Amino acid sequence: MLKSLVLAIGLSGALTFAASAQISGQRGPIQIEADQLDFIDSEARAVYVGNVDAVQGDARIRAEQLTIYFEQRSEDGSSATALGGNVGDVQRLVAEGEVFYLTPTERARGDRGVYDYSTDTITLTGNVTVTRGENVIAGDTLVVDVANGISRVSSESRARGERVRTVIITDGQSDE
Question: What is the number of domains present in the chain?
Fold first, then answer.
């Protein structure tokens, strides 16, 4: 039992994310729950599989799989310990499967999502739908500049005649 406790403490310390990593406009810890975690110290990555739920402040990412890529401290992997001794700050998070990015006012859905620390952006691709209240935007790609609160939806399907589609409900138009 003591061995399990020591391993859990070591792993939890290794997976404490840098305060600057963020999936929301708020800073703080990212809390992740999943059915399984595979931590590969020599590759500086953690793979969460099954019903993944990552929460930071008021934002949430839900997906079937979430891979977190860290900075690698040792180039040759010689200090790999399987407990995170080889990792540094978070570089990017990659969510796959049916991916949801949720905030108190918006809900975005796509097939794949990537949070890139260096650009502080979240990119959703594949069958993207964004809803805010009754308003809906659909396209192929959503890019969210987290720090600046700027979003862009684009459609890569123009060759098939598809473009970004939007429905905006104005005052007095909602079904009451």
Answer: 1
- Flag whether 21 is in a domain: no
Q: DSSP states of 63-112 as a string? A: EEEEEEEEEES-TT-TT--SSSTTEEEEEEEEEEEEEEEE-SS-EEEEEE
Name the amino acid, one letter, at 152: R
Range of the domain at 123: 30-167
pLDDT band at 52 (very low <50, low <70, confident <90, very high): very high
Backbone angles phi, psi at 16, to 5 degrees: -80, 120
Q: Read off the CATH number of the domain in which 106 is found.
A: 2.60.450.10
Segment 114-151, tens digit of pLDDT: 999 899 898 999 999 999 999 999 999 999 897 888 98
Cross-strand partners of 13: none
169 three-state secondary structure: coil
Q: Give a yes or no: residue 120 inside a domain.
A: yes
Q: Say if 5 falls within a structural domain.
A: no
What does residue 57 show for φ and ψ, rounded to 5 degrees? 55, -120
pLDDT of residue 15: 37
